[in-house]
Amino acid sequence: MHVIVVYDVDKKRVVKVHDFLARYLCWRQNSVFEGEIDYRQLEEVKKGLSKLIDSDDSVLIYELSGKFKVHVIGHERNPQENII
Amino acid sequence: MHVIVVYDVDKKRVVKVHDFLARYLCWRQNSVFEGEIDYRQLEEVKKGLSKLIDSDDSVLIYELSGKFKVHVIGHERNPQENII
């Protein structure tokens, strides 16, 4: 499945969250990762993130089951295939 | 259609982008908006954003055509219905 991960975490934890997500997904722009993972990996990502972040931090993982299209306005930091 | 908008823009423009997107979508967390809009509104959002941002800024608009699920880790800044 395709997922989009967006995170809003304290500066102290940004690098750790970034490095953890980079093991599974592609960096798209600040605080945004995206990519194809399976259900086992999704559970790993969720568990790993919950250990890394603080209760006041916020991470949203969008699990997409259908098609999607990405419209880019401005500069695309890390170009990916935008129509899947 | 459902859209997720994530933006990575210079501090000088964050408030303007935020206020513009708030006219169409729901704020989810820092630099993330989400909601249901139609194609006419999508074009308005794209046009409006391209006037507001600088070429070095980056905005990604995910246009979702299928179902999706949101997994929340940590604190959900602005709770929405997470399974559509």
TrEMBL record, chains A, B:
SUPFAM superfamilies: TTP0101/SSO1404-like
GO biological process, one term: defense response to virus
Keywords: Antiviral defense, Endonuclease, Hydrolase, Magnesium, Metal-binding, Nuclease
Cofactor entry: Mg(2+)
Pfam families in alphabetical order: CRISPR_Cas2
Highest taxon above the source species: Archaea
EC number: 3.1.-.-
Record: residues binding Mg(2+): D8
A single GO molecular function term of this UniProt record: hydrolase activity
Similarity remark: Belongs to the CRISPR-associated endoribonuclease Cas2 protein family.
NCBIfam families listed in its UniProt record: cas2 (TIGR01573)
Subunit structure: Homodimer, forms a heterotetramer with a Cas1 homodimer.
Protein name: CRISPR-associated endoribonuclease Cas2
Organism classification: Archaea, Methanobacteriati, Methanobacteriota, Thermococci, Thermococcales
GN (gene name): cas2
